[in-house]
Amino acid sequence: MTDKTLLRALKGETLPVPPIWMMRQAGRYLPEYRATRAQAGDFLSLCYNSELAAEVTLQPIRRYGFDAAIMFADILLVPQALGADLWFETGEGPRLSTITDAAGLAKLKGRDDIHDHLAPIYQTLRILKAELPKETTLIGFAGAPWTVATYMIAGRGTKDQGPAHTLMQADRATFSALIDLLTESTIEYLSQQVLAGAEVIKLFDSWAGSLKGTDFDDFALAPAKKIITELKARHPGLPVIAFPREAGPRYAGFAKATGADCVALDNSVSADWAAANVQSSGCVQGNLDPRHMVTGGEDLVRETRRIVEAFSKGPHIFNLGHGITPDADPENVALMIETVRAGK
Ligand code: CP3
C-alpha cells in the first residue's frame, strides 16, 4: 500500500482528509512563476526548457505542500509536434495554423513522429521524479482529442467551438480522421510520459460540454475509452483522471463508459448531485469555483467546507472546478488548503 494520498483516493479509498491539488497551480498568480517565465523568455520556451519547467512545477509544492504536482506543459504541444504552427498572443491566448480540410490533415505528421519534439516534456518528468517529495504524486496529462481538435480547426480558442462543429457536419470523414490521429498520438505521448515517471494521467476535455447526444458518445466518450483502455493495457494499474468539463448530466456514467478511475468536476455541477450520481461509482475530483481564489474570505471557507462535506462519504480529491486565474491572491490558496486540512 502506498502512502501517497492521491493514489489511495484514486484506488477508491475514502480518506478522512481529501488529498488536494489545483488546476494551473503553477501559474501567473505566483510571483515566482512570473520570474521564472521571464527568465525563460516566453510561455512556450518555458514549456520546452525542462529545468525551468520542472522548477515552476515544484514552486507550488514548496509554497503550499500540495499532494500532487502536475508537470508544467500545455495541451497544445501535441498539435505542434504534429506539425501545426503554434504561438501565444500576449493577453489573448493561443494561435495555431488551421486544419479545415483533408489536404490540411494530410500535411500533418504521424503518431510515431512526435517524440523528438516532445522529448523535453519527458525530460521534465524525469527531473520531477527525482526531485519531488516522496509523498507527492506526479501527474502527467494531455488534452482530449475533441478539445485539441477545436483549437486545431479554429486556430484559436472559441466560445462555442463553432468551426469544429461545422467541420464535423460538413466533412465528417476528415473530422473523424483528425480525431483518430489525435487519439493515437495522445496514446503514444501519454505512454512515454508514464515511462518517464508520471504516476497518474489526466485527460483534459475542456470543451466536452459543447458535444451533445451521440456527438458526446462519439467524440468525448469513445476517444477517452480508447486512450484509457490502451494506456491501462500497456501500464497495468495506471490511474487516469478524466475531465469532461461542463458535461453536466453526462458526468454520470462517464467513468464506467471510459474506464477512468476518477472524474474531475467543473463548478457548474452541484456537489450534492455529483456525490449521489458520480461519486457513487468511483472517485471524484473538484469542484470549488476558482473565483474564490480571487475573492477569499468567509465565502471561500464556507464553500470549501461544503464541498468537503458533500464528498466525505466516498473517494474525493479536492480541486478547483477549473484553473486558478492570474488575478488570484496566493493567500486565498493557503486559506483553502488550511480549511480542507482542518477537517469539517
Ligand atoms: O495545471 C497546471 O499547472 C499544469 C500546466 C497546464 C497549463 N495548461 C499551463 C498553462 C495545463 C494542464 C494546461 C492545460 C490546458 N491548456 C488546457 C486544458 C485545461 C483548461 O484550462 O481548460 C487548455 C484548454 C490549454 C490551452 C491554453 N494554454 C490556453 C487556452 C491558454 C491561454 C489562456 C491562459 O490561461 O492564459 C494557455 C496558456 C497557459 N497554459 C498558461 C499556463 C500557465 C498561461 C501562459 C502564461 O504563462 O502566459
Give an overview of the whole structure.
Helix 9 (162-170) packs across helix 10 (172-196) and helix 15 runs parallel beside helix 16 (330-341). A seven-stranded parallel beta sheet has the order 1-4-5-6-7-8-9. A two-stranded antiparallel sheet has the order 2-3. Strand 6 (240-244), helix 12 and strand 7 (262-264) form a beta-alpha-beta unit. The two termini are 26 Å apart. The mean pLDDT is 97. It is built from 16 helices and nine strands. The protein has a single domain (18-266), classed as TIM Barrel. The radius of gyration is 19 Å and the shape is globular. By secondary structure, it is an alpha/beta fold. The longest helix has 25 residues, at 172-196. Coproporphyrinogen III binds at residues 23-28, 37, 43, 70, 72, 74-76, 93-94, 141, 143, 157, 204, 206, 323. Coproporphyrinogen III binds next to strand 3 and strand 4.
Map the helices and strands.
Layout (H helix, E strand, L loop, with lengths): L4 H6 L20 H10 L2 H6 L1 H15 L3 E3 L6 H5 L4 E4 L3 E4 L5 H5 L8 H17 L5 E7 L1 H10 L7 H9 L1 H25 L3 E6 L7 H22 L5 E5 L9 H5 L3 E3 L6 H7 L5 E6 L3 H4 L1 H14 L5 E5 L9 H12 L3
Parallel strand pairs: 1-4, 4-5, 5-6, 6-7, 7-8, 8-9
Antiparallel strand pairs: 2-3
